[in-house]
């Protein structure tokens, strides 16, 4: 018997794609984990990507369908490379139009459609839903008005309308459900990537404890504070900073690391962006993962750092800021918390961090529960 196919809308591409397209690595990682859970629950998945090509030279790339395996495929619309503000705007409009007409011609009444929440759709999803009346399952990772003020007031209105129009939700925390699901609609919780990775490489064996921060270099997400903790660690520690960010943020953290290398007893290195298998193998070599969110940032009241699950799924101990969204999660008891967002406090918690838990087993249990809960909302 053929599996039912679920459509999943997002800005997405596989990270090993030969053509560069716009997407966020942390989002695609979590999406692939959800797709795997859907497959395990007995559903095939078709990801419909609104991502445009970001290659620097002008070239037209035909639309295509990429088969990842027998249960997962990705649809990409025709797109083109090239720089320039006008070219970018035309390309963005084209992708929205293509997505809108795809939804009009390929969805039906009450059909479940998962949509990764983004302001980038403008009102396209809502218009299509009103016309086709499909069942909108909205994956809300964070409220963008909490992350940064939208450039236009209507963008905040679009976000509110999208959230209210959803028939069911996928949330990263219980607190986000409490904040926006006033109508008590069906929902499931998935903190992050539940794909448990087998140990494929050995830990660093140089007599040092290796600590990794993996994520954005956005100052609000704590990468700079994580790096600064190296100044308060003894010489038997090595801090690795890897991830992504704007040119300004990347240069700032590189400069900070260069200064720390000259003054810290502990080693600290900038690792740059690592993807896919390279990322997995690198963090598996480390012992402790850092989740150093700025507790004063509004989005941290409801969002869950996906990096925590990535660390646990690869067998690392986790050091995290003590905030309600993380502390109240079902995995909170397995983490090492610090109370103040200072390099000194982070370093103290790194030194005292202990983990006798089987973190891979904990993630496997979360995944089983998530699969069971998916049936309830689909």
Structure description:
By secondary structure, this protein is an alpha/beta fold. It has 13 helices and 16 strands. The chain has helices at 25-40, 85-106, 124-132, 144-147, 153-165, 174-180, 223-228, 247-263, 276-284, 306-313, 324-327, 343-352, 359-377, and strands at 4-10, 43-49, 60-61, 64-69, 72-76, 79-80, 112-116, 135-139, 168-171, 187-189, 209-216, 237-244, 267-272, 288-291, 317-321, 336-338. Strands 4-5-2-1-7-8-9-10 form an eight-stranded mixed sheet, sandwiched between helices. The chain has a six-stranded parallel sheet with strand order 13-12-11-14-15-16, sandwiched between helices. Strands 3-6 form a two-stranded antiparallel ribbon. A hairpin with a 2-residue loop joins strand 4 (64-69) and strand 5 (72-76). The chain is globular, with a radius of gyration of 21 Å. The protein starts with a strand and ends with a helix. The mean pLDDT is 91.
């Amino acid at each position: 018997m053929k599996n039912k196919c679920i459509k999943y809308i997002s800005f997405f591409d596989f990270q090993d794609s030969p053509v560069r397209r716009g997407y966020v690595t942390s989002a695609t990682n979590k999406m692939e984990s959800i797709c795997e859970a859907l497959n395990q629950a007995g559903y095939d998945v078709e990801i419909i990507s609104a991502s445009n090509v970001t290659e620097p030279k002008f070239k037209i790339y035909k639309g295509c369908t990429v088969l990842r395996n027998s249960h997962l495929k990705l649809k990409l619309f025709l797109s083109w490379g090239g720089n320039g503000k006008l070219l970018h705007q035309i390309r963005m409009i084209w992708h929205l139009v293509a997505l809108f007409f795809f939804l009009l011609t390929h969805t039906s009444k009450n059909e479940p459609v998962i949509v990764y929440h983004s302001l980038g759709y403008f009102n396209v999803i809502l218009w299509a839903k009103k016309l086709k009346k499909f069942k909108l399952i909205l994956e809300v990772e964070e409220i963008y008005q909490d992350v940064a003020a939208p450039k236009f007031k209507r963008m905040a209105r679009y976000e509110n309308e999208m959230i209210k129009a959803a028939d069911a939700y996928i949330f990263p925390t219980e607190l986000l459900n409490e904040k926006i699901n006033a109508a008590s609609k069906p929902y499931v919780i998935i903190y992050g990537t539940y794909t448990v990775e087998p140990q494929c490489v050995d830990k660093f064996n140089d007599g040092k404890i290796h600590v990794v921060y993996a994520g954005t270099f956005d100052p609000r997400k704590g990468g700079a504070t994580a790096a600064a903790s190296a100044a308060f660690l003894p010489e038997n520690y090595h801090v690795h900073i890897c991830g992504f960010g704007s040119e300004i943020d990347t240069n700032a953290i590189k400069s900070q690391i260069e200064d720390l290398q000259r003054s810290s007893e502990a080693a600290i290195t900038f690792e740059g962006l690592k993807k896919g298998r390279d990322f997995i193998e690198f963090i598996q070599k480390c012992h402790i993962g850092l989740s150093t969110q700025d507790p004063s940032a509004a989005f941290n009241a409801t969002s869950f750092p996906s990096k925590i699950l990535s660390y646990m799924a690869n067998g690392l101990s986790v050091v995290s800021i003590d905030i309600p969204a993380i502390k109240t999660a079902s995995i909170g008891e397995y983490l090492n918390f610090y109370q103040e967002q200072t390099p000194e406090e982070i370093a103290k918690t790194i030194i005292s961090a202990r983990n006798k838990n089987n973190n891979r087993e904990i993630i496997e249990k979360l995944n089983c529960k998530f699969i069971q809960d998916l049936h309830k909302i689909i």
